[in-house]
Design the sequence.
């Protein structure tokens, strides 16, 4: 109900003070809306990695305000990004948190031609895409069970990051060759292999059983992934 004060109509009719029902709203009539409450949004990271600072904003219309991403969500997204980076740099496999062995350096060589110290398609690639630096190393490693492994590691530096990524993509494919291994008495098949790229540098690593030793395939795979993190 609304209160109408006394007044005179345009035709001269006197209208006394009275009350009446509120008029119905029609299409096009202005609608008054209540101001929505303000809510606090905690700082967080969006899915694209953008950092959103803490701020306040109006609550969403139509019911209970939506929950906003809190600090724990932001931490989770950062952890996910770091995990993806680790997977990409280690050949798509999560790096081992605690290796079951400690490598011992057996031999190391620095310098030389990558084309002259490689085989397979890798050799052909280096003929037209020469490296700028090469370091090779051989390691011995003993598993907790006493099984002995041989590790071959090569660190290849290319002229730019694109050339390094191309080299890694080539050698990551089975049967395309590699840098010639320094280890003697062991035939490297490329079955237990891992790689890592860091800017213009590619690290290539392989693991095989030492003569007379029988480590499991899982141990050899773990050894190759760990060897790819070494800096010969």
Sequence:
């Amino acid at each position: 109900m609304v209160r109408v004060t006394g007044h005179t109509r345009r035709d001269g009719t006197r209208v006394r003070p009275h009350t009446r029902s509120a008029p119905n709203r029609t299409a096009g009539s202005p609608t008054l809306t209540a101001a929505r409450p303000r809510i606090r949004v905690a700082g967080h990271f969006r899915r694209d990695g953008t950092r959103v600072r803490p701020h306040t904003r109006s609550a969403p219309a139509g019911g209970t305000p939506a929950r906003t991403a809190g600090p724990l969500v932001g931490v989770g997204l950062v952890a996910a990004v770091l995990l993806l980076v680790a997977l990409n740099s280690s050949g798509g496999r999560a790096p081992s948190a605690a290796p079951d062995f400690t490598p011992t350096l057996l031999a190391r060589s620095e310098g030389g031609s990558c084309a002259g110290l490689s085989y397979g398609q890798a050799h052909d690639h280096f003929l037209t895409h020469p490296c700028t630096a090469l370091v090779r190393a051989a390691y011995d490693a003993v598993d907790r069970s006493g099984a002995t492994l041989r590790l071959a590691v090569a660190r290849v530096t290319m002229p730019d990051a694109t050339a390094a990524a191309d080299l890694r993509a080539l050698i990551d494919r089975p049967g395309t060759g590699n840098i010639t291994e320094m280890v003697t008495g062991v035939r490297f098949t490329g079955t237990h292999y891992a790689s890592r790229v860091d800017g213009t540098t590619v690290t290539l690593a392989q693991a095989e059983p030492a003569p007379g030793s029988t480590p499991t395939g899982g141990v050899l795979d773990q050894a190759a992934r760990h060897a790819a993190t070494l800096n010969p």
In short: Residues 63-70, 89-99 have pLDDT under 50 and may be disordered. The longest strand covers residues 133-142.
